[in-house]
Design a protein that fits this description.
- The chain is mainly α.
- The chain has one domain: ABC transporter involved in vitamin B12 uptake, BtuC, CATH 1.10.3470.
- The protein is globular.
């Protein structure tokens, strides 16, 4: 049974266990299950976006604009519900759709315009952040205070519970299942892998790789919109600067999860485990009395070490070659 589980995922599970043991020894409160479950609220936006940025990176691209789409979606939802007076749930839907439109713009320019993904998503990050700030300024609301006054039922979206489980955990599970099914249990997911392994070969096999690439950016944008909604519900106000500090953590959970930065290899199970590792590490360091600035340092070290290890690990390189041969054989028929 264990032989079927990728070695890297087993390593991630081992790291989670080690975190629980070590941080629990430093502060026994870390062993409180309630505290661990509630900590999901602190990293749920990172996980939500990370699940679908995984799809983007598997195709050989990258998306760093999600950190700004979070703030834009939050502001749009706040303005529609609190200023315009639209129903809160319709406002939520519009915020998610705005995220999807931002992703669509990224995807079209990257897939059909043949512009480098880093350039487009970096420009998108600045553009969407600027639009969010302008919208807040036009509404006359203080940028620092944000838009508040949301109904209590909306606040329960992130702060409520279902059968004793915090809603953040439930949302984490739901988004993971959606991403897992799309990537690992559908033809769509297989085409994503084929596109990332060899785009030219995939095109010869009749796969519309441009559409596949663009669609992953749409999903990533919608995920960022959902993250913005969840974060707004959790904090009780809509602000344009939400997500500004999430860029490094998002890339960390994707790469630490085993997704190859050059594409063609990865999975959302690893991303989910890496999200938990990162979240527990932040909580554990805080409970151990470590300063916030050093928590950011730990995240950076985690990113560098994971990239280096995956790059030099011969087993990992072997798996890449084996997958490439298998997929090319499948295309050739």
């Amino acid at each position: 049974m264990l032989k079927k589980i990728p070695k890297w995922n087993l390593m991630l599970v081992f790291l989670i266990v080690m975190e629980i043991v070590v941080f629990g020894m430093l502060n026994p409160r870390f062993w409180n299950v309630t505290i661990l479950l509630n900590s999901f609220n602190d990293f749920i936006p990172i996980a939500i976006i990370g699940f679908f940025v995984t799809l983007v990176i598997i195709t050989g691209g990258i998306d760093i604009s999600g950190v700004s789409i979070i703030g834009l979606a939050s502001v749009v939802m706040g303005l529609l519900s609190q200023v315009v007076g639209l129903n809160i749930w319709i406002s939520v839907l519009c915020a998610v759709l705005i995220g999807g439109l931002c992703g669509l713009l990224n995807g079209i320019l990257i897939a059909y315009g043949k512009v480098q993904a880093m350039v487009i998503t970096l420009g998108g990050m600045l553009l969407y952040s600027g639009i969010a700030i302008v919208l807040v300024g036009m509404s006359g609301v203080s940028t620092y205070e944000g838009i508040s006054g949301f109904p209590e039922m909306f606040g329960q979206l992130a702060n409520g519970q279902v059968f004793g489980l915090p809603n953040a955990v439930v949302i984490f599970i739901i988004m993971f299942i959606i991403a897992y099914i799309l990537l690992h249990r559908t033809r769509y997911g297989r085409y994503i892998y084929l596109t990332g392994i060899n785009q030219n070969t995939a095109e010869y096999a009749g796969i519309n790789t441009k559409r596949m690439i663009a669609s992953t950016y749409v999903l990533s944008g919608m995920a960022a919109g959902i993250a913005g909604v969840v974060l707004t519900s959790y904090l009780g106000s809509a602000r344009s600067d939400y997500g500004a500090e999430y860029l490094m953590p998002i890339l960390t959970v994707v790469v630490l999860g085993g997704t190859l930065i050059t594409g063609g290899k990865g999975g959302v199970i690893g991303t989910a485990l890496a999200s938990i590792i990162l979240g527990f590490m932040q909580v554990g360091l805080q409970m151990a009395g470590v300063s916030t600035q050093y928590i950011g340092l730990a995240t950076g070290v985690l990113l560098i070490v994971s990239v280096a290890f995956l790059g030099i690990n011969p087993d990992f390189r072997f798996n890449i070659k084996r997958i490439t041969k298998t997929k090319n054989h499948t295309i050739g028929g």
